[in-house]
Amino acid sequence: FDYRQPRNPLPVSMPSLNVQGDVPAYEIYDFPGHYSHGMPADGEALVRHRLEALEAQGKTFEGASNCRAMLPGYTFELTQHFDHDADPVDDRQFLLLKVEHQGRNNYLTDQPASYDNSFVCIRHKIAFRPPIITPRPTISGPLTAIVVGPEGEEVFTDELARVQVRFHWQRAQDPAQGTTWLRVAMPSGGAGFGHQFLPRIGQEVLVTFLGGDIDRPLVTSVLYNADHFPPHFSNATGLPGNRTLSGIQTREHQGKGFNELLFDDTPGAVRARLGTTHQATALNLGKLVTPRTDGQAQARGQGAELRSDAAIALRAAQGLLLTTYARHDAQGSQLDREELLKLLAECGELFQALGQTAAARGSPKIDTQGIEALRQSLSQWPAPESNSPGDPVVAIAAAAGIASATPRSQVHYAGENHDTTAQDHLQLSSGAAMRLHAGKGISAFAQDEGISAIANRGKVLVQAQDDDMVLNAQKNLHLSAAEGEVLITAPTIRLVADDGSYIRIGGGVEIGTQGKAVVHAGEHDWVGPKTDSASVPTFGRDSAAQCLAFHYPGHDDGSARLAVEHAYQIKLEDGSTVQGLTDSSGLTERVEREQMHQAQTAAMRDKGPNGGRQ
């Protein structure tokens, strides 16, 4: 197995070519270790050499002679042999593999001096492969080393997350000179996923050797020492005071910032923290405390805290629920909203009941489609086991109230209805002016206790600029002025009583009655003609016509990239449709109606006066 090419088919097999007769066949299996060969062709050559070494053991000969010139590695030719003298020359040429010499002198005995030898040989034409009898060198245990790399680098690695190390016993002059690339053991690793914690230059690591093979080193862990202390979580103190803390802290590359995942197992104050020094951004869970110093910390609260000195965004494509209704010990489903649905049902009932009562008394009919559609969307949010998407609704429910405040402006906008309902009082206050504008009428209805409109200072101005003004009362109608006068002016003024008696002013004064007319006065002066005058307001007729401007997304009105000569379509409330091409300023044609209309606009993909696809 070669980790650099794990899919390469490295196992190789080869049958023996040595015919030994009718004997049982057997298999020799050998695992030569990692990195023995890189390609199948290299493996075949290695297997061939091993096979030839085994076969050579069955093709050796033993002999004896008195030839003093015999030495291992030399060849000789066998002649005058009773059995092989007729063999071909290449079958009678042998390579000496082993020679044992035996000699005796005659200094201490009466026997004559003698010499002979015994030898082992193989035919010269047979490939000689020495057998493997020397074991590979091994190492009995792991070693520690220092991670090295080029000057100026902090992390030095390759595409396989390998590092280079320098053992303490190495005598290299260059401190950056180390071993070849060593793999680093990680808690998990897969095809493009897993852990990645690379030892940095200068860190002490533990190197083990697979199978004790000195050619197969592996970095298995990182060690702390006097130059590299354990982390000081949250930039506070370290061990032994903070021995209840566990976690991971990384270090900014060539910097002082860090990221950390912290677990605090202090009795009665367990917490977890995921944070970074960049903009002091952190998620704190559990018992919220200040960073521990020698095991001590000040309480800040409990629960959860997401904080940052920069921006924070919450995005939920299938709905977002914010609620203070408790689900103790994580009971209930993720979107459990029973209390919210109950409150919305109460809201809808009150909203509809008052609206129906007002409509029965002559007030315009209320529109309940918006509140009902929203309540329906919330009730159909997916169940815990469902994979169906929910409507992207933001739902907020608070058991003890909601407070929203800002020292600056606050804006609320609804593309459709904005329904506000209060079970008790709905109270609006403004330190300056309060302005209410409506495109299609304003209606106010009070079931009980009347309607009061008071201007402590300044005028009260009520106008009907295009139609009648009607003031009706079941009982009395009072007009009074504490100072000044009550001025009523019109082309014609009529005062009519229930019995038909009347006074008509305009084009003269006409008084009529079928009963008695009584005039009480201290004096009666009948003089000549005289008139008076009063100013009458004039009302303009503003048109509801508009030209709409189209620009491309990502541009505001101040830096708009105008959609010039682009096809558009405008749908109005009355069902009519306007379509065409924008002009050189990105404007549509003038859309004019007698009343204000809501318009739905769409930019079409295909140009042309008849529009196209949206």
Describe this structure in words.
With 614 residues, this protein is mostly beta strands. Among the domains are: 60-123, no CATH class; 233-308, no CATH class; 321-328 and 336-380; 543-614, no CATH class. It has helices at 40-56, 338-360, 369-379, and strands spanning 60-65, 75-77, 93-104, 114-123, 143-148, 164-167, 204-209, 217-223, 245-249, 259-264, 271-276, 281-289, 299-307, 320-323, 394-397, 493-496, 502-505, 509-512, 567-572, 577-581, 599-603. The strands form 6 sheets. The chain has a 5-stranded antiparallel sheet, with no helix packed on it. Strands 1-4-3-2 form a 4-stranded antiparallel sheet, with no helix packed on it. The chain is elongated, with a radius of gyration of 51 Å. The protein starts with 39 loop residues before the first helix and ends in an 11-residue tail after the last strand.
Question: Runs with pLDDT <50, length 5+?
Answer: 608-614
Radius of gyration: 51 Å
Largest sheet report: 5 strands, antiparallel
N-C termini distance = 58 Å
In the sheet with the most strands, the strands line up as 9-10-11-12-13
Provide the β-strand percentage band.
15-25%
**Oligomer state of the chains in this structure:** single chain
